[in-house]
Design goal:
This protein has about 375 residues and is an alpha/beta fold. It has 3 domains: about 40-130, Beta-grasp domain (Ubiquitin-like (UB roll), Roll), CATH 3.10.20; about 135-230, Elongation Factor Tu (Ef-tu), domain 3, CATH 2.40.30.10; about 245-370, Rossmann fold (3-Layer(aba) Sandwich). The protein has 8 helices and 17 strands. It has helices at about 1-35, 60-65, 105, 210-220, 255-265, 285-295, 320-330, 345-355, and strands at about 40-45, 50-55, 85-90, 110, 120-125, 135-145, 150-160, 170-175, 185-190, 200-205, 225-230, 245-250, 270-280, 300-305, 320, 335-340, 365-370. The strands form 3 sheets. Strands 9-8-11-6-7-10 form a 6-stranded antiparallel β-sheet. Strands 15-14-13-12-16-17 form a 6-stranded parallel β-sheet, with helices on both faces. Strands 2-1-5-3-4 form a 5-stranded mixed β-sheet.
């Protein structure tokens, strides 16, 4: 029996060693033997062409040429932010990509750029604004608590020293490794106004177990250098004169705060109402600043609402779910535009309320965050 046991152990060790050798050989083959040579990436039908050494992912090779595609998961294929249209040279769709692509997207050539290996010439289409995305080195000047689970970061840009963006857009903040957790990139809306080109501000909400938010709350210190890339996104005011409805909750405040401050600076006279949902007064922030903005902009109204405020607290403002509050205030939304930022559940509920009030879905713009 002992002899048989020793034989089994020896067999397992042999298989483990063989498996490790095989894995090493595969890595070496990928790195040294499978040399795909120079490959051309044709972007937007010849608008830009770059030559790269084949073998890497489309996402990483574009980044090596200072073309940054949004990605929040570090290239693992779990966020689905890095979608691009590949018109030639994509290869087969892999099992990692499959769950994130609809039938229509597959038919149209949509792929996750982090999962597309460049092994020959590739042709892709991307939004033109990605050409203006840059990677920045900055220094954290201020880390300010806003609520028990939201902090505001103010970052001075060092290289390049200035950023151009549209109020409402977002950037990707890069965490550093800590306690065995890998460095990741996460998307956060820029809360500062576009006029302040030398700084960017973010509002970060703590997500339990979140790699980047834990780094921000527990490890990031004022004076520390940080990396970020941007700007990204299509969430911004459309150039119309339609009256505006803003609806947000929690750190969804960020892009709205940027937009409102930009409206004040540009002396916008568009009528606007901002509905901000929170559970209790402890979850409210920037209230005094928004009241001051309301006094400075006669066409603007700030309407905070609490869904779980204890009785007898002295709160005299709106109570209830933000969707109910919007319904009470907005009977006819047919001529309005709406800009929403919050959780998918909140966004979906608000869209239904606005459509019921007559707003065309094409006039509802939103940023969803998980």
């Amino acid at each position: 029996m002992a002899a048989n046991g020793n034989g089994i152990v020896a067999s397992i060790l042999f298989l483990v060693v063989c498996g490790g050798v095989l894995a090493l050989l595969l890595v070496l083959a990928e790195r040294y033997i499978l040399n795909f040579g120079p490959c051309t990436i044709d972007i937007n039908d010849g608008e830009k062409k770059v030559t790269v050494n084949g073998g890497g992912s489309l996402l990483s090779l574009l980044a090596s040429q200072d073309i940054f595609i949004p990605s929040a998961c570090g290239g693992r294929g779990s966020c689905a932010y890095c979608k691009v249209t590949v018109t030639a040279g994509a290869g087969e769709i892999g099992p990692v990509e499959e769950p994130y692509l609809s039938a229509g997207e597959r038919a149209g050539g949509t792929r996750l750029s982090c999962q597309v290996k460049v092994r020959g010439d590739v042709a892709i289409r991307i939004p033109r604004e990605y050409f203006s995305v840059r990677r920045y080195r900055g220094r954290l000047l201020v880390k300010k608590p806003m609520t028990h689970d939201i902090v505001e970061l103010r970052i001075e840009l060092l290289e390049p020293p200035e950023i151009e963006f549209i109020a409402g857009q977002y950037a990707q903040l890069e965490s550093k490794e800590y306690k065995g957790r890998e460095a990741v990139m996460r998307a956060y809306s820029i809360s500062s106004p576009p006029s302040d080109k030398r700084h960017v501000e973010f509002m970060v909400r703590l997500v339990p177990g979140g790699i980047c938010t834990t780094w921000v709350f527990e490890h990031l210190r004022e004076g520390q250098e940080v990396r970020l890339s941007g700007p990204y996104g299509e969430f911004h005011l459309r150039p119309t004169e339609a009256p505006l409805l803003f609806i947000a909750g929690g750190s969804g405040m960020a892009p709205i705060w940027s937009i409102l401050r930009n409206m004040k600076e540009t002396k916008s006279t568009r009528h606007a109402r901002y509905f901000f949902g929170a559970q209790t007064q402890a979850d409210l922030f920037l209230v005094n600043e928004l009241r001051e903005l309301q006094r400075a902009m006669p066409s603007f109204a700030f309407i905070p609402a609490l869904s779980n405020e204890p009785e007898g607290s002295g709160w005299t403002g709106e109570k209830g779910l933000i969707t109910d509050v919007v319904s009470r205030h907005v009977r006819d939304a047919s001529q309005h535009e709406a800009y929403l930022c919050g959780s998918p559940g909140m966004i979906n509920a608000c869209v239904n309320v606005l459509k019921t009030a007559g707003m065309p879905e094409s006039k509802i713009y939103f940023d969803k965050f998980a």
